[in-house]
Specification:
The complex is a heterodimer of chains A (533) and B (421).
Chain A: E1 6-15, E2 18-28, E3 33-37, H1 44-51, H2 55-58, E4 64-69, E5 72-74, H3 79-85, E6 87-90, H4 102-106, E7 113-114, H5 119-122, E8 128-129, H6 131-144, H7 160-173, E9 179-183, H8 191-206, E10 210-215, H9 218-224, E11 227-232, E12 235-241, H10 247-255, H11 265-268, E13 277-286, E14 293-301, E15 305-310, H12 316-323, E16 329-335, E17 338-339, H13 345-350, E18 353-356, H14 360-364, H15 371-383, E19 387-390, E20 393-396, H16 398-412, H17 428-441, E21 446-450, H18 458-475, E22 478-482, H19 486-492, E23 495-500, E24 503-508, H20 514-521, H21 525-532
Parallel strand pairs in A: 3-10, 3-11, 6-9, 9-10, 15-22, 15-23, 18-21, 21-22
Antiparallel strand pairs in A: 1-2, 1-4, 4-5, 7-8, 11-12, 13-14, 13-16, 16-17, 19-20, 23-24
Chain B: H1 2-24, H2 26-42, H3 46-65, H4 68-72, H5 81-98, H6 102-130, H7 135-157, E1 180-182, E2 196-198, H8 199-221, H9 224-244, H10 249-252, E3 254-256, H11 257-274, H12 277-287, H13 289-294, H14 299-325, E4 327-329, H15 337-347, H16 357-382, H17 385-420
Antiparallel strand pairs in B: 1-4, 2-3
């Protein structure tokens, strides 16, 4: 067969001593659709960043390995190099300007121009745009991707499905395009739109363009790809041809790993039905950009650890944020049998909920204040605790604060120089513990924890998880943990809710099979079940 | 049954349309109503108001129009135009010192102020690139800072470090420029007096111009509507031409044609820029810096360019302003320029993210109508002209606050609507 258009050999990449890619080999031929599948954090985006020479790669010490493009060894130092070589990218989040027409978007920064009376004096920049020629070019590209839409329509207000195709049209409008990367193009599309997109991809491949197709949706991989690479934790675990594999096997390869259960099995399986429901969520909608929750109904039981999992952008993070009133939300929530007011953070905190945010440094902590203040600030604000009253004025009760902080430091094993150290100076794991300590100070009945181990080294991860288990067991605290890392959800949760496209895809037990988890994450568990029925 | 339903639908559709028009233009409509009330209250003659208004439109429009390009480039309202105004005043002081009269002096002012404005605009642009997202407040504070340097130069350095001997301009102590400089010896009316025509003739010419335009449109598109409109204009133009032959107040109001032509040219320039590659970059950056950057546009450079253009235009605008006023208030003329121009633009219905020529001109007319009639209206209403004066100032700051507030409220409203869906 013909020579490869792209070969990436033994790619390795480290971020601050943390190996995120461990010897990846990718080989794409002209006219081939090459799928790359893997969970979040498997290394797909790092690989693509290397391919595009993104600054984030070079500012963190570059990478090891070689890239051959069109048979020649090449060095891609910046995105412009990649562009010049003929590598294009269809972005996951749309790179379209809403109040431009489709034509203006397709020709963005590659506008056709013509001379006018001023351009001869003042140069290129003030040449008039040749809208007619631009429109004609756009029409051609739109026809190629099978879009009949008017090229002068405004992008604003177009259905989401169209935008993806406009992006593709923009890439193929570049005359030298040889390799096109689709970064999760179907994540926001409906099924019929996705099918149309795959047809379009196949058509482009027929013209000899090499295509890299990054996705979570495994059935689409089976439909479209000629060859499939599976990444997991920075390793290439499989490289298969289409005929050699099936959806279930891919799902297993994607998720498969040893699960270390931190909680004893027979303890957790303890007759769940008898547990009382502490919170009842009905038809929750949360308008959190990028993590929109569309319709979630869920019962949280007293004394359990409930895991919420799912891929990034599917809405799992939105649930806790919505209930805590950080983003606008709608729906019916019953807390201990009484109606619970949404969109009111202080009310939520007062009624006995506490939240450890996924955005530790942004929302969670006052980085330049002392640890002890960080620990008690919410309860001072919400419950008027740790305050002394002197006439009309209130003062911080520093003695009590110190006592409580020391107790927390002791209980949670926070490594620090003392309660007055600034939070900024602590490591990620200890910062996370302070967030938890603050939540505990509120003496909550339900503790929401979002991504508790993000950006924390492996040793500290385990400590945090142990801590959550301890709280649950010793104090009977109800914990709702949201996490992108399935393994940690499976390590400590009693039940795991998988969210896909803003809705609940299913609820699993931690010891259910890898394939079930993989399929649910990819959002077609139900599809397959339906077929089986 | 179905018929009535349709008509009801049509009616509610109409209502919705009218609602939308009212909602979209609420600031402008509010001020039109205010203007009408004040005109009635003031009891001023139409001649007085029109005469003042023509002068003020000629004086101020250029400055207001200089604000448009930064808005398109997503940098909000450029309070930094005061910096351009300072550049202009530096040039005027020089020309007043050399006592170069008439249009020659004016052209020299332009020649001197332009490079200075480019330099200052470049610095402002660089600063605003460091404060993305807070351009408005940053440019305002930078304006105050520049004012300090301006005062330092003209109050302290003139006569000490910068040698200048001119008893007319320099204070009697020999250090510092006088508080007011009379420009009648230099550029006063240099542009305004170039060509002057009575308002009636001007309006007639404008009408005939429109007539030709619509006739041309009719020939191109063959739409009956255009023919009809051009007919209307020829009648109106004819009327104005007839009026010229009789004793009427429209004949006594003189229009500075050269100034007006310059303003018209700037309107065309703004439109022209928008149709070029440069303008496309402005628009792209204005919508989303990240996306523009990803597609290879040098975002920072585009933003600096927008501010440079705005600053230069503001300098020219200040020259037009001062040649009409006739006296330079050395330490005060530039101070309110930004506020007044921005208030005008906002009254016209512009927002922080959206502005065009039409809004600038309408805004200037409304704002200055209010300015003209407020003192008398205040006097008639409260028996005190001071209260009218107070209203003037109140209007300036009030309109900025109100329209920024309304803008935020509109966004909130639309977000809520989205949530409800």
């Amino acid at each position: 067969m013909s020579e490869s258009i792209l070969e990436m050999k033994d790619i390795e990449k480290e971020y601050f001593g943390n190996k995120v890619l461990k010897g990846i080999n990718i080989n794409v031929k002209p006219g081939e659709i090459h799928a790359i599948v893997g969970e979040n954090g498997a290394g797909k985006s790092t690989l693509m960043n290397i391919l595009f020479g993104m600054p984030v790669i070079h500012s963190t010490g570059g990478f090891k390995g070689e890239i051959y493009f069109n048979g020649k060894k090449t060095e891609i130092k910046c995105p412009k190099d990649a562009m010049n070589l003929g590598i294009g990218m269809v972005h996951q989040e749309f790179m379209l300007l809403p109040s431009f027409t489709i034509t203006e978007n397709i020709k963005l920064n590659r506008e056709k121009t013509k001379n006018n009376f001023l351009s001869k004096i003042m140069g290129e920049k003030v040449k008039t745009l040749d809208m007619k020629a631009m429109g004609a070019d756009s029409r051609k590209s739109l026809d190629k991707v099978g879009m009949t839409i008017d090229e002068w329509a405004m992008v604003e207000g177009l259905p989401v499905g169209y935008m993806q195709f406009i992006e593709i049209a923009r890439e193929i409008d570049k005359s030298n395009i040889k390799l096109l990367v689709f970064d999760e193009p179907t994540a926001v599309l409906t099924e019929s739109e996705a099918e149309h997109l795959i047809d379009c991809m196949k058509k482009l491949a027929e013209e000899g363009i090499g295509i890299i197709f990054i996705t979570h949706r495994l059935d689409e991989v089976m439909m479209a790809a000629d060859s499939i690479t599976v990444l997991r934790d920075g390793e290439m675990v499989a490289n298969k041809k289409r005929g050699e594999t099936n959806v279930v096997e891919l799902a297993e390869l994607m998720v498969g790993r040893k699960i270390e259960r931190l909680v004893n099995k027979n303890e957790s399986a303890e007759n769940e039905e008898q547990k009382e429901t502490i919170m009842e969520i009905k038809n929750l909608k949360v308008l959190m950009p990028g993590e929109e929750v569309k319709d979630v109904s869920l019962n949280i039981k007293r004394g359990e650890i409930l895991g919420i999992g799912g891929l990034a952008g599917q809405g799992k993070i939105g649930i806790a944020n919505g209930i805590m009133g950080l983003y606008e939300s709608k729906g019916e929530v019953l807390f201990k049998g009484k109606a619970f007011k949404l969109n009111n953070t202080s009310e939520a905190l007062k009624s006995g909920l506490a939240f450890v945010s996924e955005d530790r440094r942004g929302v969670g902590l006052l980085l330049d204040k002392s640890m002890e203040l960080n620990i008690v600030i919410s309860s001072m604000q919400i419950k008027n605790e740790y305050l002394k009253k002197i006439g009309f004025f209130t003062q911080m009760d520093s003695k009590n604060i110190r006592k409580h902080a020391l107790k927390m430091i002791n209980e949670l094993d926070i490594r620090c120089r003392g309660p007055q150290q600034k939070v900024r100076q602590l490591s990620g794991g200890n910062q996370q513990k302070i967030c938890i300590a603050r939540a505990l100070t509120l003496k909550p009945e339900i503790l929401f924890v979002s991504e508790p181990t993000r950006g924390i080294d492996i040793g500290a991860k385990k400590l945090i998880l142990d801590l959550l288990v301890k709280l649950n067991k010793e104090q009977g605290m109800t914990i709702v943990m949201t996490s992108s890392e399935l393994s940690e959800l499976r390590a400590i949760s009693d039940r795991i809710v998988i969210i896909s496209k803003g809705k609940i895809e299913g609820i699993l037990k931690p010891d259910d099979s890898d394939a079930d988890f993989g399929l649910m994450m990819a959002g077609h568990y139900h599809k397959i079940q339906k077929e089986e029925l | 049954m179905s018929k009535t339903k349709i008509s009801v639908n049509k009616k509610s559709e109409m209502a919705a349309k009218i609602n939308k028009i009212l909602f979209d233009n609420m600031v402008t409509i509010l001020f039109i109503v205010l203007c009408i009330i004040e005109i009635i209250l003031s009891g001023q003659s139409a001649y007085f108001i029109l005469n003042e208004l023509v002068a003020r439109i000629a004086r101020n429009s250029f400055l207001v129009l200089s604000l448009i390009i930064p808005v398109i480039a997503g940098m909000g309202l450029n309070f930094g135009i005061v910096i351009g105004a300072m550049a202009a005043q530096a040039a005027i002081i020089a020309v007043a010192h050399w006592q170069i009269k008439g249009i020659l002096g004016f052209l020299l002012c332009i020649l001197l102020s332009t490079p200075l404005a480019i330099l200052l605009g470049y610095i402002t642009g660089k600063l605003l690139n460091k404060t993305k997202g807070q351009e408005m407040i940053a440019s305002m504070i930078f304006g105050f800072f520049a004012n300090g340097i301006y005062q330092l130069i003209f109050l302290l350095l003139i006569g000490t470090i910068i040698p200048m001997k001119d008893p007319v301009i320099v204070l009697s102590s020999g250090v510092g420029i006088k508080n007011t400089i009379d420009l009648s010896g230099s550029i006063k009316y240099s542009l305004d007096n170039l060509i002057k025509l009575p308002l009636s003739i001007t309006l007639a010419i404008i009408c005939f111009g429109f007539m030709v335009y619509y006739l041309w449109k009719y020939i191109k598109k063959r739409e009956k509507k255009n023919l009809f409109v051009s007919l209307l204009f020829i009648i109106a133009g004819g009327c104005f031409a007839v009026i010229y032959n009789y004793e009427f107040m429209l004949n006594k109001i003189n229009v500075p044609i050269a100034t007006m032509l310059l303003i018209l040219a700037l309107c065309f320039f703004n439109n022209f820029i928008c149709s070029t590659k440069l303008g496309q970059n402005f628009k792209a950056v204005g919508q989303n810096m990240h996306i523009a950057g990803v597609s290879g546009i040098n975002v920072d450079k585009v933003r600096v360019n927008a501010i440079i253009i705005s600053t230069v235009l503001a300098a020219w605008g200040q020259l037009i302003f001062l040649q009409n006023i006739g006296t330079l208030n050395t330490y005060g003329s530039h101070e309110q320029v930004g506020m007044f121009a921005i208030a005008s633009l906002l009254i016209g219905g512009a927002t922080v993210t959206n502005a065009d020529n039409k809004q600038a001109i309408i805004g200037t007319i409304l704002f200055h109508t209010m300015f003209i009639v407020s003192p008398m209206a205040g006097k008639n209403l409260f028996g005190n002209a001071q209260i009218g004066e107070y209203f003037r100032v109140f209007v300036v700051y009030g309109v900025i606050g109100v329209s920024l507030g309304l803008h935020a409220w509109k966004n909130q409203y639309e977000k809520n609507k989205l949530m409800k869906q």
